[in-house]
């Protein structure tokens, strides 16, 4: 099947900039435009030249910087707007004037205060003037989604006869429903006698969350240009998102008889650039460019993806500019994903029992902590190996009272050679109190040479990794402990060091220490 070309018209720099708070400087617009050009966007709407001196300068700068895409400026159906647009795009290798007027009864009556005949007349005058200044003219029927069909047919026919090469049928207020909108496009193409002399375009807003669905339905009905924006930026709830349109068409060639010239590998970097410049964060679950778009957290999905990616992925993360897909370990993960990530980190489990023990600790951690990073896993495995069941002293429970103006008190339950003992002590701080409580039972006689705490990752839910160094009769022993509670991590580290000391003493003095 020979596929038609779908023209991708990006209006991030014009409609996208109409998002409250998304203003961009001239240089920022040029940076985004260069990325759009690299991605092979066909038309870049760079701004609304008459809006301000700054917007004029930005359109002109984009028209100067971009060589391989058409650069366009918006203008009302007014002579001054059109002349300003023509001047702004003048440096472009390929320029377009985009002129528009509203065609819905509500807009004509209440906003323009014009009769339908006057609107047609003004549209024709505008298109003719634009054609005198530029070979490539697009005409838009603003609020076409709420316009009457007969009137739309008349104005579209007149605009094409006046020289418009692209006819845009915007759903300006996001009111359209896919089937009805597709029918509107189909009828226009069928009923307008000279419709074959223009490309039909759609421009959908997302007020009902249907911008992409409406655009795609229109493509199936014969539209061959889609106006869209990076990250779906745009007036109010935004425009149709470029990345979703492009990837839908590419992923479902069985459904869409069109192709785009877009190189999708630039989608994620461009999305990031637009987000950084505008300060509009991309929601994590945003299709294609959201940070979770190719991330799997649940065990069953992770198992499937590890066995065969297509079980849960319809696109390749690498194709749209991600480094790779992501297996995110969390409380829904299973053993296969856990083992696989640790293998990647160079950790092998000698026995199934060792894996199960580390996996149990991982689930406990995942219940307490949102994001589990590689550093967490490494700490968890060393912690798990450090505190294996053969240890002489084990921490059973720990309670600390710490209040402003009062001396901290720790109560520790230890298992020493399988026997539980409960002990209490106060100290200058909660950690000091815990160490003293442990020491009051163990009587190791060791001196504390080093105590350090490290946050393994960032965030207040990070695990603290504690190192304790004890000295005894000229020997130094390190202990490690990790936990989201640094007092518990400290107790684990102290006990780990005591166990090391015990092993050392057993080797040299089989009678043992005070333990
Ligand atoms: C659906 C869309 O996204 S349309 C594009 C929206 N984008 C923008 O508006 C951003 C840029 N706009 C601006 O900077 C300003 O609105 C300007 C420079 C265009 C006009 O500013 P002002 O002259 O102060 O007019 P103002 O914005 O207050 O009102 C708009 C006027 O344009 C008229 N108008 C609106 N659309 C059109 C049109 N397509 N063709 C002709 N006149 C139009 C309105 O009826 C109104 O006329 P009035 O002043 O006689 O009542
Ligand atoms: C100017 C037009 C194309 C527009 O942005 C709209 O109708 O939403
Ligand atoms: Mg719009």
Automatic annotation (TrEMBL):
PROSITE patterns, per database record: AIPM_HOMOCIT_SYNTH_1 (PS00815), AIPM_HOMOCIT_SYNTH_2 (PS00816), PYR_CT (PS50991)
Organism listed in the record: Marinospirillum alkalitolerans
Region (Regulatory domain): 394-515
Family assignment from sequence similarity: Belongs to the alpha-IPM synthase/homocitrate synthase family. LeuA type 1 subfamily.
Keyword Transmembrane belongs to the record: no
Keywords from the UniProt entry: Acyltransferase, Amino-acid biosynthesis, Branched-chain amino acid biosynthesis, Cytoplasm, Leucine biosynthesis, Manganese, Metal-binding, Transferase
Residues that, per the record, bind Mn(2+): 15, 203, 205, 239
SUPFAM superfamilies, per database record: 2-isopropylmalate synthase LeuA, allosteric (dimerisation) domain (SSF110921), Aldolase (SSF51569)
Gene3D superfamilies, per the entry: 1.10.238.260, 3.30.160.270, Aldolase class I (3.20.20.70)
InterPro entries assigned: 2-IPM_HCS-like, 2-isopropylmalate_synth_dimer, AIPM/Hcit_synth_CS, Aldolase_TIM, LeuA/HCS_post-cat, LeuA_allosteric_dom_sf, LeuA_bact_synth, PYR_CT
Function: Catalyzes the condensation of the acetyl group of acetyl-CoA with 3-methyl-2-oxobutanoate (2-ketoisovalerate) to form 3-carboxy-3-hydroxy-4-methylpentanoate (2-isopropylmalate).
Cofactor(s), by name: Mn(2+)
GO molecular function terms noted in the UniProt entry: 2-isopropylmalate synthase activity
Descriptive protein name: 2-isopropylmalate synthase
Subunit structure: Homodimer.
Residue span(s) of domain Pyruvate carboxyltransferase: 6-268
Substrates-to-products reaction catalysed: 3-methyl-2-oxobutanoate + acetyl-CoA + H2O = (2S)-2-isopropylmalate + CoA + H(+)
One Pfam entry name: LeuA_dimer
Assigned EC number: 2.3.3.13
Pathways involved: Amino-acid biosynthesis; L-leucine biosynthesis; L-leucine from 3-methyl-2-oxobutanoate: step 1/4
UniProt keyword Amino-acid biosynthesis present: yes
């Amino acid at each position: 099947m020979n596929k038609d070309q779908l023209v991708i018209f990006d209006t991030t720099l014009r409609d996208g900039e109409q998002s409250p708070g998304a203003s961009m400087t001239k240089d920022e617009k040029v940076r985004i435009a260069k990325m759009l050009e690299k991605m092979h966007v066909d038309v870049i709407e760079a701004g609304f030249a008459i809006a301000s001196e700054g917007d004029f300068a930005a359109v002109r700068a984009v028209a100067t910087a971009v060589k391989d895409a058409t650069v366009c400026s918006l203008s009302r159906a007014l002579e001054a707007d059109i002349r300003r647009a023509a001047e702004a795009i003048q440096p472009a290798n390929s320029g377009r004037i985009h002129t528009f007027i509203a065609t819905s009864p509500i807009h004509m009556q209440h906003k323009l205060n014009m009769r339908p005949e006057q609107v047609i007349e003004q549209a024709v005058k505008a298109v003719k003037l634009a054609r005198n200044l530029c070979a490539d003219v697009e005409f838009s029927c603003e609020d076409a989604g709420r316009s009457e069909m007969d009137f739309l047919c008349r104005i579209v026919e007149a605009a094409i006869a006046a020289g418009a090469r692209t006819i845009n049928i915007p759903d300006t207020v996001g009111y359209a429903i896919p089937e009805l909108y597709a029918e509107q496009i189909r009828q226009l193409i069928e009923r307008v006698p000279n419709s074959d002399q223009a490309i039909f375009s759609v421009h959908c807003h997302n007020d009902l969350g249907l911008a992409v669905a409406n655009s795609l339905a229109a493509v199936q009905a014969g539209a061959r240009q889609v106006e869209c924006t990076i990250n779906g930026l745009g007036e109010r709830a935004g425009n149709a998102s470029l990345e979703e349109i492009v990837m839908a068409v590419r992923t479902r060639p069985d459904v869409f008889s069109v192709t785009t010239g877009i190189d999708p590998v630039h989608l994620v970097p461009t999305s990031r650039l637009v987000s950084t410049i505008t300060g509009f964060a991309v929601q994590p679950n945003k299709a294609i460019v959201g940070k979770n778009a190719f991330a799997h957290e649940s065990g069953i999905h992770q198992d499937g993806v590890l066995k065969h990616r297509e079980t849960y992925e319809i696109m390749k993360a690498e194709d749209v500019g991600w480094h790779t897909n992501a297996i995110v370990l969390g409380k829904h993960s299973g053993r296969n994903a856990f083992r696989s990530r640790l293998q990647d980190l160079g950790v092998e489990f000698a026995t199934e029992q060792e894996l199960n023990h580390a996996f149990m600790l991982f689930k406990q951690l995942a219940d307490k902590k949102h994001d589990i990073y590689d550093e967490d896993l490494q700490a968890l495995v060393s912690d798990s190996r450090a505190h294996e069941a053969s240890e002489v002293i084990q921490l059973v429970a720990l309670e600390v009272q710490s209040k402003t103006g009062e001396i901290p008190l720790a109560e520790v339950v230890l298992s020493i050679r399988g026997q539980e003992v409960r002990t209490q002590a106060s100290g200058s701080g909660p950690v000091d109190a815990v160490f003293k409580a442990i020491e009051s039972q163990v009587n190791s006689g060791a001196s504390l040479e080093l105590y350090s705490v490290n946050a393994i990752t960032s965030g207040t839910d990070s695990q603290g990794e504690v190192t304790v160094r004890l000295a005894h009769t000229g020997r130094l022993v390190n202990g490690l402990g990790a936990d989201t509670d640094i007092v518990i991590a400290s107790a684990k580290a102290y006990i780990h060091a005591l166990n090391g000391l015990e092993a050392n003493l057993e080797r040299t003095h089989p009678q043992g220490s005070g333990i």
